[in-house]
Amino acid sequence: MAEESWHEARLIPTSGINGAEEQERRATSALLAVVSAVREFGRGFVKPFGAPAGTLECYIEVPFLLGERRLYPDGLIRVTRGGRSWTALVEVKTGPNELATEQLENYLDIAREQGYDAVITISNEIPAVAGQHPTKVDKRKLKKVDLHHVSWSQVLAEAVMQKEFRGVADPDQAWILGELIRYLEHRKSGALEFDDMGEAWVGVRDQVAAGTLRASDKGIAEVAARFDALLRFTSLQLGRQLGTEVVPVLSRKELADPAARVQTLTQSLCQTGTVSGTIRIPGTVAPLVVTADLRAGKVTCHVDVEAPREGKATTRVNWLVRQLKNAPDGARVEVFVAHARGSSAAELLSAVRENPSTLAVDPSKDIRLFRVATTGNLGTKRGRGRGSFIDSVLTGVDGFYGDILGSLRAWSAAPPKLRPVHAEPPEVDDSVPAALASTDFSSQDGSQPAGAHKDGTTPNATLVSDAAPTSATEGVTFDGAVDTSDESGGSDDQADSARGAAVVGSSTPG
């Protein structure tokens, strides 16, 4: 038999899985074993649930008595540090199986009776809002015990980021974590990707196309929640490739009240036939906005980039175009100017590359913002595969980041330049007495003589040095007058007046 048909031995095999019960047991055992064995991954897994740093212990199918019934939660995690311990029960679902309210409430009661801290659920269900649990339970049971949920997609994304980007110190532990990743990526593991827009998708889609959808129609809230779940899955997939935490962006109101987000999407579907969401990727110039237009059958991704704060309009356009070397010619570039509503110009990138001035319609206007967008065909199918809604959104986001967003950098002003100054002061005229010099050498001096006008002429009052003066006023010209008090025998008052005028004309303090 050819070696190509041989199966390599695996730490966590996928063969021999018969039925959902065996699938859940193996997935639970594999995950909790790696959580306790790989220190970095285990710490990263339990930290968001409020567990302290410490020694991790994991168990499966621990029996408990609740009244007269014996119940078996899928797993138990205990973290011990000194005299303190943190304990959580774990409930796992794989494949299309969903969490059950009654079962979760029973485990919450067990945790409360035993003094445990939390109940953690793991399934393929992705809640519309981070931190929201996909299963409704009696809130009174959450007074002393916390209820947390994590999807298998998130578990897989965290495992990949820990191994490939954050790192694992011990090589053997890194190999063990790699085996968990390999197992979860196999279709038989039951850790499925987001692959269904829900039972209400087809009906809502057709009503949007016909223009008959109403906010009160059945199923519209489910489709809105599924779209947000798709955005979360898209973020996990992109973050898994980039090695960073990519998250959907929600307003404070939407975070506090998930129903407000559903209402916003519902109104948008009814009024415009569109649903949209925003994804934040660390290190990028701005968040990525995804808009799915069910009426037009198009999916658009765009990003808003702040324009440089200096330079001509065409200079600012060229700054953007230089960063879009890998962008497709069909990308659309819009310009937003100060004190104006909406975009002032929009062109395809191919036209802007040939003539940047096409976006500078009015050079006197101050360009404040660029919007770069790409548009593709939107699938309509409910599941996965070619022509599906899910795959068209995933493809659009991945392509936009790879071609455009990943290459964009924010503008920053150039550092200030030093003002040139004279290395050596100009030569000083020794014939001028120091007492009559009005200023010393200054950084404000240029190539013209000190005190000269811009046209090169000198002020009316100047020093005359044909002969050495015998007094502070002798030989000084001021406004055309000359001191002749000695020759004319003028009075002392006239002489004093002449001396005062000379002092003023020479700008020398008395």
| Helical segment count | 14
Oligomer: single chain
Number of strands: 14
Low-confidence blocks of residues:
461-510
Q: Assess the beta-strand content as a share of residues.
A: 15-25%
Order of helices and strands: HHEEEEEHEEHHHHEHHEEEHEEHEHHH
Spatial shape: globular
Give the strand line-up of the largest sheet.
8-9-10-11-14-12-13
Radius of gyration: 39 Å
Helical percent range? 25-40%
What is the rounded distance between the termini? Answer: 116 Å
Describe the main β-sheet briefly. 7 strands, antiparallel
Secondary-structure-derived class: alpha+beta
Mean pLDDT: 85
Number of structural units classed as domains:
3
Brief account:
The chain is of the alpha+beta class and 510 residues long. Helix content is 34%, strand content 17%. The chain folds into 3 domains: 12-192, Trna Endonuclease, Chain: A, domain 1 (3-Layer(aba) Sandwich), CATH 3.40.1350; 207-407, no CATH class; 432-510, no CATH class.
Task: Quickly list its features.
single chain; 510 residues; alpha+beta; Trna Endonuclease, Chain: A, domain 1; 3 domains; seven-stranded antiparallel beta sheet; five-stranded mixed beta sheet; 14 helices; disordered C terminus
Commentary on this structure:
The protein is α+β, with helices and mostly antiparallel strands. It folds into three domains: 12-192, Trna Endonuclease, Chain: A, domain 1, CATH 3.40.1350; 207-407, no CATH class; 432-510, no CATH class. 34% of the residues lie in helices and 17% in strands. It has 14 helices and 14 strands. A seven-stranded antiparallel beta sheet has the order 8-9-10-11-14-12-13. A five-stranded mixed beta sheet has the order 1-4-5-6-7, sandwiched between helices. A hairpin with a 4-residue loop joins strand 10 (288-293) and strand 11 (298-306). Helix 1 (19-37) packs across helix 2 and helix 4 (152-166) packs parallel to helix 7. The longest helix has 23 residues, at 220-242. It is globular. Residues 461-510 have low confidence and may be disordered. This is Stress response protein. Residues 484-495 have a biased composition (Acidic residues). Residues 457-474 have a biased composition (Polar residues). It comes from Nocardioides panacis. Residues 439-510 are annotated as: Disordered.
